Amino acid sequence: MNQETVTASGEPTVGTAHFRTVFPTTAHGAHTARHAAERWLAAQQGRPEPADDDSTATASLLIAELTANAALHGRVRGRSARLALTLTPATLRIEVTDARGDRLPAPTPAADADGDGESGRGLLLVASLADAWGCEPHHPGGKTVWAECARRTARTGR
Q: InterPro entries annotated for this entry (predicted)?
């Protein structure tokens, strides 16, 4: 279900806009959800395609990491994950909910992330890019991992 607040092209979002999609916990499902979210964010900015700027790149990386983590670590046979975005004039909140409440995220310490392992660095990336992030239980046994980014206006760069 998508809820949107309509704004004039090029104007900042007035009020709050919501995006939600359910995706299978597979690499392809995470990829598809990320691209749908990027297109929605571009539409909220009055653009046909995602912008090539730092805030858009940050949002895309956070969405990619959180959806990929749900596909990799949150998979439960027969259950999907959910990606939800909440866009306000000040903040973008990204939430990914999966069915594995027993597997809570914990960033690998920086010293351990320098090793040859193929995973463990994603949450360090989330922690460094997001203004805030965390994890909450989701009834009846899943979890929601979230990240927030302050929005910068094109006019002021702040």
A: Anti-sigma-factor_SerPK, HATPase_C_sf, HATPase_dom
